[in-house]
Amino acid sequence: MKLSTFASWATVVFVTAVVAVNAQQAATPGANRQAEFGTFPSREFLRLNADKFKWTATEGNKLGVQTAVLEGDPSKPGFYLTVNKFPPNTMSRPHTHPDERHCVVLKGTWYTGEGTKTWEHAKEVGLKPGDYMRHPAGGLHYDGAHDEEVWVLISGYGPTRADVLDKGELFGKIK
Fold first, then answer.
1. The CATH number of the domain where 56 resides is what?
2. DSSP-assigned letter for residue 40
3. What is the rounded (10 degree) CA torsion for 53, 56, 58, 62?
4. Which helix (H) or strand (E) holds 25?
5. Mean pLDDT, each 10-residue run in order, the chain (175 residues)
6. Burial class (CB in 10 A: 0-12, 13-18, 19+), 114
7. Which of 3, 29, 49, 68 lies 20 to 30 Å from 168 when distance is taken between CA atoms?
8. Residue 52: which of 74, 68, 34 has the closest Cα?
9. Distance between CA atoms of 62 and 95, rounded to whole angstroms?
10. Which domain holds residue 71?
């Protein structure tokens, strides 16, 4: 995927997520979530090139799944925006998150399954670049890559974590 396409999608998703989060929070009486991060002009514009992302191991895994945090801190209260990078043949195991998440595929085909206690490849849905998926808070699911690297943009309102159904490792190899 061309970097310009990636940047366009990232911008669209980021703006959409911020608008959605702000709209949801505006419905909460007395909530001033914008104050958490500050407002313009005290908050500067930010530009990040994909080749400059700071990647770290997702949930401490040793299988190569990496996360780049673009905004916020997923471990703390507030809005966050991340990109998860899955190497080929690596999937998360069935798990839940305490927060609702909004996901857009940036690169590759992201395979997703829901509601099952085990991987069920025949029931997976493959999502292509530009496709969107909402993970409801507490929704049991798994996802990842089959035969190619996959990048997924994820936004939510933390703190977040992954609660693996069987309490084991979050990620596993499928081949």
1. 2.60.120.10
2. T
3. 130
4. helix 3-26
5. 56 50 47 62 85 95 97 95 98 97 98 95 96 97 98 97 96 92
6. middle
7. 68
8. 68
9. 18
10. 3-29+49-173
